[in-house]
Amino acid sequence: MTNSTIVVMGDRAEYAPPAPERPNLRLGQLSLIAVTLFTFAFLYVPIIVLILFSFNSARTGAVWQGFTLSWYQRLLGNEALLTAAGRSLIIGIVSTAGSVVIGTLTALAMEREHFRAKAVWDGLLYMPVIIPEIVSGVSLLLFFAAGGIERGLLTLVVSHIAFSMPFVYLTVRARLADFDRSIEEAAQDLGADEAKTFWLITLPLLMPGIVSGALLAFTLSIDDFIISFFVTGKGWNTLPIYIWSQLKQGVTPEINAISAVLLLFSVSVIALSLLLQRRRN
Amino acid sequence: MDGASTPLHAKPDVEDSALANDFAVELRDVVKLYGEVAAVDHVTMFIRHNEFFSLLGPSGCGKTTSLRMIAGFERPTSGVIAIDNKLMGATPPFRRDVNTVFQSYALFPHMTVEQNVAFGLQMKGINKDETKRRTQEALELVRLPQLAGRYPKQMSGGQQQRVALARALVNRPKVLLLDEPLGALDLKLRKEMQIELKTLQHQVGITFIYVTHDQEEALTMSDRIAIMSRGKALQIGSPLEIYERPNCRFVADFIGETNFLDGKVIEVRGDFATLELPSGQTFVGRVSEGVRAGAHATLSVRPEKMQLLENASSTAANTYQVTVFSIAYVGSDTRVIINLGAQRIDVWEQNSSSTLNPDDYFFKPGENAWLTFKPENALVLAG
Q1: B194, B218, B251 — which closes off a domain?
Q2: Who has greater pLDDT, B239 or A114?
Q3: CA dihedral for B38, B43, B47, B53, sign (positive or negative)
Q4: If DSSP codes are grouped into helix, strand and coil, which group holds residue B368?
């Protein structure tokens, strides 16, 4: 019994001793496989259904009628949607640029400067990652309203920087943790002043961390609904807000198609980020 | 010792040199404090042009901190540093005419070997053609021209080491600083690189300041060595001076092997002092700085400078009957441990014959023998 428990509990199958063929062990393995399959089904079946139905020729309902690409063609002709997508793209690019600059410089300061209560400041930088989005959204809305700031592009960009900057900070900080400072000293020793050392040595070496942080920030920005919903102004629908507004008329295959495109986009960006991180190693 | 590091039986460096005030690097009364701790404690040293100068000591002795202050990565708390007779003060590293070979090599991982080596020349604004030519020359000097297009991580430790060397030497600095550059290499490669470095230094005619904790390395390569401990430069001298005339117990103990016999000085006459052990025996050795009659002192005598005899006259100086405790054959010599009363002494007898019979060795454990050594082969050290 003990033997089988080890195998069921632990994912390190290689540590299990060569077990004799025992019926309860077989049962353990089978249930493990079943749980795993269920987990994957739970995670991915809805998404697969969504993608499938984006190719369904039926206008409504969950009945498969035939294959079509017309919903995707329709997307290209939907001006409101394209405008919203364009806005999301602009907000994504601008807020990512802001997050990259602020996040990288903050990481450098936190890693290299000495000041009081550093652990507290570090914790405060992590906080936005765990603060419930609804709380961030409401507080930002209040803040902008109290400050008399008109809601629109500016408030969206500022808010997106606020929630995505910590991710850039985290990835750059991780990269800095195993940064050999003697490489920078070597550059100075060879005649590079501080500015040249930063541009020619420090920045290129941090680049993989900065890029994967930026890609994370960008996908978060493109995907964001809750915070954007609170801080957006009239006529400043982002793509997720547009999708949500269309849902009032029920789930259409067109929405399935946008979602599939958005999914493909996010997955590609994350895949690119992982690829870059792997190349660094 | 108050940091005024003067080799024993020699005049201070300043007067020793032909050009009294012309040095590659000078450190005068340099102190570096980290909080309350003095990493470097009133160090004064004068490093001559084209000299291979080593800073030798155990880890934490202040040798790397001293090197980093010369490079400009750290600033002295007090004292002055001059390079090529120019006071450095707050001069940043990128305006000092020195280059460093780092312990970790610190090659730029995102640049090829060629780009690494060319970096310093580009920073100096040297034109493309000359940069290319000098980079090529530097790579030939370290015998790596065929690897110019590689990235550092595609190379072995020894090759990276040579790239680091080329990258520093290509700038033709006044002084090359080397921080344990061979520390990461295996023993065989280290020995090869020691010879290579020494040859290279002759070839390029640049002052080398070399930090190491390996005494054999320092003895093999250096013109002069500064022995450092706890932030102080205890002794500065040639390998011969350091080994044969250590000026204190620490240096005698740190360099090579030695026996210490503690006692009281009963007489100082000319160059020699007589020491009496608590057990009553007296020994004579060369007197060194600070040894006074009536004070406590230590006789230091190296194992290879003593002989064991079958018979000897008990009236001769430094000659006593002893008991052989153990014998170990180590090839080039036989290492004998003897007891003189309660005192254990190591004696190394050179194996000058090639007998195969272990019984041919004169002494066996438990037997008596006579220990003897010449007064000029022993040192009486203060404290």
Answers
A1: B251
A2: B239
A3: negative
A4: strand
Per the CB < 8 Å rule, is B119 touching A196?
no
Q: What is the mean pLDDT of each run of 10 residues along chain A (281 residues)?
A: 39 52 72 92 90 82 80 86 90 96 94 86 87 92 90 91 93 90 94 94 92 90 91 85 84 83 86 75 53
CA distance to partner chain A, nearest, from residue B249 (Å): 36
pLDDT at B105: 92
Which CATH number characterizes residue B43's domain?
3.40.50.300
Q: What token pair was written down for A195?
A: 């500015």
What are the residues of chain B with a beta carbon less than 8 Å away from any beta carbon of chain A? 71-73, 92-94, 98-100, 102-104, 106-110, 119-120, 123-124, 167-168, 171
Q: How far apart are CA B370 and CA B331, in angstroms?
A: 23
Give the DSSP letter string of B336-359. Answer: EEEEETTEEEEEEEE--S----GG
Q: Distances from the Cα of A155 to the Cαs of A140, A144, A149, B140, in angstroms?
A: 9, 7, 8, 60
Is there a domain that residue B147 lies in?
Answer: no
pLDDT > 90? residue B13: no
The residue segments making up the domain with residue A32 are: 2-53
Neighboring chain B residues of A182 at a CB cutoff of 8 Å: 102-104, 106
Q: What percent of chain B has pLDDT over 90?
A: 66
Kindly state whether residues B51 and B200 are assigned to the same domain: yes
**Helix ranges (DSSP H) in chain A:** 2-9, 23-53, 70-77, 79-112, 118-130, 133-146, 153-177, 181-189, 194-197, 203-223, 226-231, 239-246, 253-280
Query: Is a pLDDT exceeding 90 seen at residue B80?
Result: yes
Taking the Cβ of residue A186 and every Cβ of chain B, the question of whether any pair is shorter than 8 Å is answered with yes
Q: Which domain holds residue B348?
A: 257-382
Interchain CB distance below 8 Å, A191 and B92: no
* Number of domains present in the structure of chain B: 2
B18-73 tens-digit pLDDT: 445 789 999 999 999 999 899 999 999 999 999 999 999 998 899 999 999 999 99
| Whether residue B245 is found in the same domain as residue B277 | no
In a shared domain, residues A110 and A221? yes
Q: Report which of residues B356 and B200 the model is more confident about.
A: B200
C-beta separation of B77 from B31 below 8 A: yes
Q: Which of B72, B104, B120 sits opposite A190 (nearest CB)?
A: B120
Q: Within this chain, do residues B31 and B80 fall inside the same structural domain, yes or no?
A: yes
Any domain includes A36: yes
pLDDT, residue B58, reads 92
Return the bridge partners of B262, or none: B298
Regarding whether A175 and A207 lie in a shared domain, the answer is yes
To test the contact with chain A by mutation, choose from B68, B101, B103, B108 the residue with the greatest count of A C-beta atoms within 10 A, namely B108
Task: Return the CATH number at B367.
Answer: 2.40.50.140
Would you state the pLDDT for residue A151?
Answer: 87
B302 within some domain: yes
Q: How far is CA B71 from the centre of its chain?
A: 20
